[in-house]
Design brief:
The protein has six helices and 18 strands. It has helices spanning 49-53, 76-89, 97-110, 187-202, 248-259, 312-325; strands at 21-27, 30-31, 35-37, 56-58, 61-65, 71-74, 123-132, 145-154, 165-169, 207-211, 219-222, 225-231, 235-238, 263-266, 277-284, 288-297, 300-303, 336-338. The relative contact order is 0.15. Bound molecules: pyridoxal-5'-phosphate (PLP).
Length: 339
């Protein structure tokens, strides 16, 4: 589909064909060059390690068209760091930070006409992917890998935009094990979260809040986003847990919250203590912040603010991070990388 036929203001969050992706392959102990590929298909051995043993991890970040007409990536170095952490946890070779950022730049440049124009509220989503490609029948780490950066233009993650959703804690399911792979953005974690997601949707809840897998007493994170809560006495609270993904959106929002004079606390948050929050949000690259109006936990329903409107502090934080991403205010923390 040519980019000039896209309705930028009404994009969803699904894959749209683009000009292509960028790929590099690792073999004989070293990475080959990053190459632009037009066809959105890869050919691999049927016994490839990623297909059988899930040696696969990925990232998600965005490119924005700024007010001044530039194209920028938001904190790609942090995604590179996280991919290296994920790769280490599952014994994979990972690209260096420089190679990762260069691949993101190349993929954005290759698809420059797919970066949604400033003012549309849309962005270009980048999906770096790392997979073990060696045919392995016995279980061991692959010695060959492919690193791919594919892109697709996206609108807001939730079709109703920045409006509150209702969440549920499903204690019959854990997303990750206590000393497992929850901190890694590996493919299998997401397969494990599919079933609880389906169960929750059937019950009428668009998102699931996972509890800590050891005691099921504390908040861990939502299916694809971190938990943040705002208290009446000016705290931005987010859980400290060994089994959650270290969200780059959350990390950035914590800095902006401090800039706004909020106090930031990272410590265990008891599910029984959810009534301390005036506002709750789910944060991540895709939706930035999804306000959460209620959380059903056992027979209790905790509610936060108004069912039809995001709270004041989360709205300010949402606007602040978007203002940086779209270049509307100075990039004081050096988060933008020009393409
Ligand atoms: C499980 C999980 N937690 C949190 C996040 C948010 O992380 P980030 O802000 O880096 O997108 C994501 C999305 O990437 C996720 O999949």
């Amino acid at each position: 589909m040519p980019s000039n036929s896209l309705d930028w203001k009404n994009l969803g969050f699904s894959f749209l064909p683009t000009n292509g992706h960028v790929q590099a392959d690792f073999a004989d102990g070293k990475w080959g060059p990053l190459q632009a590929k037009k066809e959105p298909y890869i050919s691999m051995h049927v016994a490839a390690n990623c297909l059988h043993y899930g040696q696969a991890c990925f990232e998600g970040l965005k490119a924005f068209a700024t007010k001044e007409g530039k194209r920028v990536l938001f904190r790609p170095d942090r995604n590179a760091d996280r991919m290296r952490l994920s790769a280490d946890r599952i014994c994979m070779e990972a690209p260096s930070v420089e190679m990762f950022v260069e691949a993101c730049r190349m993929a954005t440049e290759l698809n420059r006409d797919f970066v949604p124009p400033y003012g549309t509220g849309a962005s270009l989503y980048l999906r770096p992917l790392l997979i073990g490609t060696e045919p392995t029948v016995g279980i061991r780490a692959s010695t060959t890998y492919s690193f791919i950066v594919l892109v697709t233009p996206v609108g807001p993650y939730y079709k109703d935009g920045f409006s509150p959703v209702e969440a549920i804690v499903l204690e019959d399911y854990d997303r990750a094990a206590p000393k497992g792979t929850g901190r890694a953005k590996m493919a299998g974690n997401y397969a494990a979260s599919l079933k609880p997601g389906v169960v929750a949707k059937k019950m009428g809840y668009p998102i699931v809040l996972f509890s800590d897998p050891k005691e099921n007493k504390y908040v861990d994170e939502f299916g694809t986003s971190n938990f943040i809560g705002i208290t009446a006495d000016g705290y931005y609270k987010t859980p400290e847990s060994g089994s959650i993904l270290q969200s780059i959106t959350n990390e950035s929002l914590q800095v902006l919250a401090q800039d706004m004079g909020l106090k930031v606390s990272r410590s265990a948050i008891a599910l029984d203590g959810l009534d301390q929050f005036r506002e709750v949000g789910a944060c991540g690259t895709a939706a930035v912040i999804t306000p959460v109006y209620s959380i059903q936990y056992r027979e209790r329903k905790f509610t936060f603010g108004k069912p039809d409107r995001a709270g004041e502090t989360l709205t300010r934080l949402y606007q602040a991070i978007q203002a940086v991403q779209y270049g509307e205010i100075p990039d004081r923390h050096g988060w933008l990388t020009a393409v």
